[in-house]
Amino acid sequence: MNQVSASAPGKLLLFGDHAVVYGHPCIVTAVDQRITATVRKNGTDVFFLDAPDMGLTAYSKTLADLGKKELPKSVAFIEMLYKRFLEKYPQQEGIVVTTKSQFSSQFGFGSSSAVSVAFAKALTSLYGIEMTNHQLFDLCYQAVIDVQGVGSGFDIAAAIWGGTIYYVSPAKVVDQLGSTGESPLPLAVGYTGIKADTPTLVRMVQAQYQTEPEKIGGIFEQIHQLVDEAKSAIESQDWQRVGELMTANQKLLQTLKVSGVKLDELIRTSVQHGAFGAKLSGAGGGDCMVAIATDRRSEVEEAITTAGGQVMHVKLHAEGVRLENA
Ligand code: MEV
């Protein structure tokens, strides 16, 4: 095959943020905003990348130089992944990669993870290499660790498996909640307009954990318990309880000092206008918040907009990585 394309979805973390880095479970849903990667062999010893949606065009490197020198952030995951792939499956000729995104990398939907997974899927099928989802996960997760040094890989798992999953790092547990197809999860999503810096926030929590292991470990334990309860509440579609658990999770995240003024404001107004509960989604500081709202969902969305947030209409429980017709 000359050219292969694959696409992978973004994600929203529903429960268990930060604690998931320390071996506790989280619940994540895939969102149907996809990134597509197209790959073809180019007959030279050079790797070319065109990722206009990530602000990068006509990037190139010889195969021998992969992973060396300063890597632009937008290319780092793809380049490291390709380097790891070549270590395992040596090839003489380079490739041309182009990516296309349905969403901005701003929103915290996980553009790096989605692009890594889409690229890995396209790359392995270009060379006719069959991989299980777990093998694909290991390849992509290695690139995340190479580039960021930290991370639970929940976003990689959401991009690979799709749906809504109960996840324990690194893909030790990947349990689908509900069947595939559109989730009935009544979620309102608000973007703060602030880009979160995930590695910095993860390291900040790590520092707290090192200084006060008992206190912070206790918070992680409490998060673990409510994630387990949320799993049952989602499965039985008890939205009021799911909302209450979100608010409880948010309080624990506030104790970890990872929320922010804008997040708190959007969360507060959502609950005031009829949401059963709300919390930040992801590392905190900015990015998105999520709220559970049934009958009064439009009222909640209006309140988010009035408070200066941007309501994101996304389909949840999206399909995981898939090959596309090039
Ligand atoms: C960031 O989106 C979510 C964190 O739990 C980090 C991670 O799981 O890799 C804070």
Tell me about this structure:
With 326 residues, the protein is an alpha+beta fold. It folds into 2 domains: 3-181 and 317-323, Ribosomal Protein S5, domain 2 (2-Layer Sandwich); 187-311, GHMP kinase, C-terminal domain (Alpha-Beta Plaits), CATH 3.30.70. Helices cover 40% and strands 24% of the residues. It contains 9 helices and 12 strands. Strands 1, 2, 3, 4, 5, 6, 7 and 12 form an 8-stranded mixed β-sheet that branches. It has a 4-stranded antiparallel β-sheet with strand order 9-10-8-11. Helix 1 (73-88) crosses helix 3 (133-148), helix 2 packs across helix 4 (154-161) and helix 3 runs antiparallel to helix 4 (154-161). The protein is globular and about 60 Å long. Bound molecules: (R)-mevalonate. Residues 13, 17-18, 20-21, 151-152, 154, 198, 202, 282-283 line the site of (R)-mevalonate (MEV).
Oligomer: single chain
According to CATH, what is the class of the largest domain?
A: Alpha Beta
> What is the N-to-C order of secondary-structure elements (H for helix, E for strand)?
EEEEHEHHHEEEHHHHEEHEE
Number of strands: 12
Named CATH topology of the largest domain: Ribosomal Protein S5, domain 2
CATH architecture of the largest domain: 2-Layer Sandwich
Q: What separation lies between the terminal Cα atoms? A: 10 Å
Number of domains: 2
User: What is Rg?
Assistant: 20 Å
